[in-house]
Amino acid sequence: MEARKQPDYEILEFEGYTYHRQKKDRETPRGALGFPAEGGRKARTVAGFPQIQRVYRLKEGVKRLFGDESFFAEEKLDGYNARIFQQAGRLMAATRGGFICPFTTEWAGIWGEDKNLNRFFRDFPNYVLCGEVIGDNPYNWQRDPNLSPGAHFFVFEITAPDGRFLAPAERYRIVAEYGLPTVPRMGEHSAADIETLYELMRKLNDRGREGVVLKDRQGPRRLKFVTPTTDLQDIKDAMCIGFDLSSGFFFNRYLRASIFVQELGLDPEEYAPRIGWSFLDGCPDPQDFTEASETYTVFVKSEKTWDALCRQLKSRVRIVCDSRKPVRIIGRELLRIDFRRIYQKSSQRFKRILKGHLHTD
Ligand code: ATP
Q1: Most buried in the list 96, 123, 203, 315, measured by CB within 10 Å?
Q2: CA of 37 to the centre of ligand 1 (A)
């Protein structure tokens, strides 16, 4: 019997605007958004953000992807991917999956005013700014303590109306001209100066930074490479929600960290205990384990935004709001919301383990 074909798109609505979301990777990446022609506006597609391939060994990976050609290195920031675009005369922001996010959209309006995004979109109305959102946000609870309160956006690609990324050099020129916040640049390199790249990676690792993305001078080639400090921190942070993650989550990170230690000549005596501690430190404490959860803080303009965000988050995981209070940050009166994401499967499994239940595995 022929399997029923699942539709590739679903129709969604955001504040009265209808759009299509591409659910799966096809010839084009998932997460594309399609807006129908409406009220004199032409139909429009916002391209999905392509997957960035990862290498476990930098030297071989660089040679394989770029050969002898040079490429640009940029710091990989550790947050979530957002695409910001102008639609129906306002800024909107989509997540990687292609959902217009009420939280990111509200902050896009703030960055529009405070971080020159409006200036950019006045001149490039049909372009898309792709960037990483870090700081206080509903998708990553670990925040860099050096960042001021609130969410922060850093541009890492600009998409032209034909769906292609601008070349890095062109993007660097535009972000400088418009004063847009951008990911740190780490220079132009090639396989011949791998030692310089190794040194950059060791420094990022020492500073607890996530890693690098290497980018073609002109074309679409991209590669990511991350530090063991981040991988080990991820393992520690994810231990208590481990039953809700894919089975490869821990193995891949241990493997990457170990290969990095070998390739970059780090001290195995230092890393053996760090690798071990990442698991041990993350393991729930039987004395005070109550649930597998993560704690988040977000700042929103109104209850309405929080309700819309909460509805979106709740479709995937249980959310409990712990407090909401008015605060003044970034020169605005905002609402500070503290909430928890509760992971049911891990909560139940750990409770049973810690209470001594018998298991068949
Ligand atoms: P993927 O689907 O590409 O495997 P992922 O969701 O697993 O991605 P990561 O492994 O964190 O995410 O790596 C890719 C992501 O890194 C990009 O989608 C982007 O959000 C983020 N990123 C951070 N800094 C940069 C940068 N300088 N250039 C490109 N992407 C960056």
Answers
A1: 96
A2: 31
